[in-house]
Design goal:
Blueprint (H helix, E strand, L loop, with lengths): L2 E6 L3 H12 L3 E7 L3 H11 L6 E3 L2 H4 L7 E4 L6 H10 L3 E5 L6 H14 L3 E4 L6 H11 L6 E9 L10 H17 L5 E7 L11 E7 L5 E7 L6 E8 L2 E6 L7 E11 L2 E11 L7 H15 L8 H19 L5 E2 L4
Parallel strand pairs: 1-2, 1-4, 2-3, 4-5, 5-6, 7-10
Antiparallel strand pairs: 7-11, 8-9, 8-15, 9-10, 11-12, 12-13, 13-14
Helix pairs in contact: 4-5, 5-9, 6-7, 7-9
């Protein structure tokens, strides 16, 4: 049986959601909502959508349409709380783009509301459904890197610059998602420093350097910037026997183990067993896996083990702690626990 869905937001990511849900045999897109009518019409033409799909400029109208069981939200993060709350109160299942909200308390409130309504709140942390990330999680769990030492991630580009959030809120959640997944841990404390260059009001950090500390003592260092023409999407976890590297910009070798370790020889440290292993990765569109998981959660009315609302709330708590550190000039801040 097809599940009726309304999609809020017809921008870049919303268009991908529209395409996936329109192509899925177990969903039926009933309405698409965006305040820009020209954008709606352009998406309808580009994707050759059925003419019976309602194109609406007001999201509240979509909640009143018959046949809707779920909504998918790809609107600015600042709008999430109001829209998700309204949808859950109408007893709709919800898929929301990350971050769930911009306040930890609001995220927790929405998770509890979803439980009260017995509806699924699912967050689109797309990287958690990426075959590269899933393969990397298995490699770390198998102990192939030896004893873990530290991690790092660089996520830079020259645009887009968001008007409603800074580089921290825009970029950090991706790498925190991946690191949490690979380590099977959540940070207990964080630290962040930011730099503002663009004359935006209110001022937004364009460059953020952050540190995450995990219960095991493992630390990860993040470099986030949206003013860097050198686009990078690179994350590594370093162990005593090698480094696991996810380089999203490398089409041919996105996941690599750089083997090698140091041995003392003649009172000097020498690198031994150095080699590069390119790992084979299954081909799959992560967002298609996201949409399929959401529909499965609706049919079974059970929370996702990968990206439930509570997973989203925990990540928002980490971002809020990083933001608090940023506002306090780099003070170490403890993380909220959901």
């Amino acid at each position: 049986m097809e599940i009726g869905i309304a999609i809020f937001g017809a921008g870049r990511w919303g268009t991908h959601l529209i395409r996936n849900f329109c192509n899925h045999p177990q969903s039926r897109v009933i309405a698409i909502v965006d305040p820009n009518l020209e954008q709606l019409q352009a998406v309808q033409k580009r994707l050759q959508l059925d003419q019976d799909i309602a194109l609406l400029e007001d999201w509240t109208e979509a909640l009143e349409l018959p046949g809707i069981e779920a909504v998918a939200i790809a609107t600015p993060a600042s709008t999430h709380y109001e829209i998700i709350s309204a949808a859950l109160k109408k007893s709709y299942h919800v898929l929301s783009e990350k971050p769930l909200t911009l306040e930890y308390s609001e995220s927790v409130e929405l998770c509890k509301l979803a439980e009260q309504q017995q509806r699924q709140l699912f967050i689109d942390h797309t990287y958690l459904f990426n075959p590269v990330v899933q393969s990397g999680q298995a490699i770390v769990a198998e102990g192939k890197l030896g004893e873990l030492r530290y991690g790092y991630a660089t996520r830079t580009h020259i645009e887009p610059v968001r008007p409603d959030v800074d580089a921290l809120w825009d970029l950090a959640i991706h790498d925190i998602c991946i690191l949490n997944s690979w380590l099977n841990q959540k940070p207990v404390e964080v630290q962040a420093n930011g730099t503002v260059w663009l004359p935006q009001q209110p001022p937004q950090s364009d460059l953020v350097m952050a540190k995450l500390t995990y219960p095991s003592g493992f630390q990860a260092f993040l470099h986030l910037c949206w003013l860097n023409p050198d686009k990078q999407r690179r994350l590594g976890v370093v162990g005593t026997q090698g480094t696991l590297i996810f380089d999203e910009m490398s089409a041919d070798a996105p996941l690599v183990i750089q083997h090698g370790h140091l041995e003392e020889q003649n009172n000097r440290w020498k690198a031994v067993d150095v080699s590069r292993e390119v790992l084979a990765i299954a081909k799959a569109e992560p967002l298609a896996q996201v949409c399929n998981e959401f529909l499965n959660c609706i049919r079974q009315n059970t929370a996702s083990q990968i990206s439930s609302g509570w997973v989203g709330a925990e990540l928002v708590g980490i971002l809020c702690a990083l933001n608090n550190s940023l506002e306090q000039g780099g003070k170490i801040v403890q993380c909220n626990r959901s």
